[in-house]
């Protein structure tokens, strides 16, 4: 009986690893501290030596607690150009703000913005380097633009014959959930036919971009991935550095898959406060909720937030337990369902024409059905059922590209 129990327990632990295609030591993964790709300098610094290097990095690109640029320069790596994504290399630009080229004051290296007049490096810039390094912390969501930048840089590398070295990092929202993007709704916050949370690291996603032919012209990028060590998708991972100005706490990162959907509503997610993506509120909710906050202009963070200088009433989610939905592998759509039910002016809730700060909820959700289902009062079970068979098909496709259990 005891032997049977041991066998069953072993199979229970091993099953997710077997399904993912992972063939390493199942139990050892959970016993050691996580090491990001960047932390494992012995695996890539010798490979970069003697080459002219371009680096697509931001404030999350660290080795230990030090900027990877500073660290690699100290190790005599020849960094010629730094490329910056949304928010810039030093992450001092507001969401959606165009970022300009500049010279990095600390190193004297030119910084080329890929979130301004252009989205990918030019031939001249690619000719100035031998190899490109990508090291940016992602948060695992379709509408977080790092995966778009990844694809753009892969396209440039493929066009001009450069290899891309990806220093992989864990995905703090490593589960798979949400409707698959209807490509008729393709936009700057949704370029790929994937769910809201895609359940992949940047390295794995790069393999999917290549494998599914998502680079224009079906080009293939030559990539070298330095994988995360001692990592599995179901692990909790606390980010050592906030990935963007408005994701400044671990709680905001974990709530982001659900709360970013509120950007398609008249409800503030706390932009213009020092607790963004951990609160929800609107002036219209006075008398319904007692908690309140007032969005204000914060340069470099949120300069013209929704409901600026107005008292918003709503929910304080700073201590909200995200574990149940995350462990169940679900985006917490019930937050929106519940708030819509109590909102006094329902005709305003999804009317993005009321404010320049609001986005179209259809583009964020990736489907026109979601808004209709919320308005119609559909149950969570009914909404989730409508995501099939697309979600299951995606999960099956995803297994081809996994590096981790």
TrEMBL record:
Q: Which residues form the Peptidoglycan beta-N-acetylmuramidase NamZ C-terminal domain?
A: 254-404
Extract the coiled-coil ranges from the record: none
Pfam name, any one:
NamZ_C
Note the Gene3D superfamilies from the entry.
3.90.1150.140, Uncharacterised protein PF07075, DUF1343 (3.40.50.12170)
- InterPro entries (UniProt xref): NamZ (IPR008302), NamZ_C (IPR048503), NamZ_N (IPR048502)
The residue ranges of the Peptidoglycan beta-N-acetylmuramidase NamZ N-terminal domain are 53-250
Please state what the protein is called: DUF1343 domain-containing protein
Species name for this entry? Chitinophaga defluvii
């Amino acid at each position: 009986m005891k032997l049977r129990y041991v066998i069953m327990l072993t199979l229970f632990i091993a099953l997710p690893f077997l399904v993912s295609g992972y063939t390493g030591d199942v139990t050892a993964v959970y016993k050691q501290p996580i090491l990001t790709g960047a932390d494992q300098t012995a695996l890539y610094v010798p490979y970069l030596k003697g080459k002219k290097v371009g680096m697509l990095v931001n404030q999350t690109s660290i080795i230990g607690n030090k900027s990877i640029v500073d660290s690699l320069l100290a190790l005599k790596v020849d960094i010629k150009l730094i490329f910056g994504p949304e928010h810039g290399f030093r992450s001092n630009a507001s969401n959606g703000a165009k970022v300009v080229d500049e010279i990095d004051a600390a190193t004297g290296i030119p910084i080329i913005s890929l979130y301004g007049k252009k989205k990918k490096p030019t031939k001249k810039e690619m000719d100035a380097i031998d190899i490109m390094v990508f090291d940016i912390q992602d948060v695992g969501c379709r509408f977080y633009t790092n995966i778009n930048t990844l694809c753009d840089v892969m396209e440039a590398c493929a066009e001009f014959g450069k290899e891309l070295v990806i220093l992989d990092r864990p995905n703090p929202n490593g589960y798979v959930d949400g409707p698959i993007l209807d490509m008729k709704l393709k936009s700057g916050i949704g370029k790929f036919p994937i769910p809201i949370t895609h359940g992949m690291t940047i390295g794995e996603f790069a393999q999917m971009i290549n494998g599914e032919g998502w680079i224009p012209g079906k080009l293939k990028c030559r990539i070298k991935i330095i994988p995360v060590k001692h990592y599995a998708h179901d692990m909790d991972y606390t980010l050592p550095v906030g990935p963007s100005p408005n994701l400044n706490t671990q709680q905001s990162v974990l709530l982001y898959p659900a709360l970013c959907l509120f950007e398609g509503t008249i409800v503030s997610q706390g932009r213009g406060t020092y607790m963004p993506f951990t609160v929800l509120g609107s002036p219209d909710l006075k008398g319904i909720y007692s908690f309140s906050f007032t969005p204000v202009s914060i340069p470099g963070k949120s300069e013209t937030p929704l409901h600026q200088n107005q008292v918003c009433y709503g929910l304080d989610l700073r201590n909200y337990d995200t574990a149940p939905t995350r462990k169940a592998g679900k985006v917490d759509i019930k937050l929106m369902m519940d708030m819509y039910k109590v909102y006094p002016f329902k005709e305003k809730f999804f009317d993005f024409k009321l404010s320049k700060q609001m986005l179209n909820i259809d583009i964020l959700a990736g489907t026109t059905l979601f808004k209709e289902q919320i308005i119609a009062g559909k149950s969570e079970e009914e909404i989730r059922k409508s995501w099939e068979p697309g979600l299951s098909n995606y999960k099956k496709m995803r297994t081809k590209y996994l590096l981790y259990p």
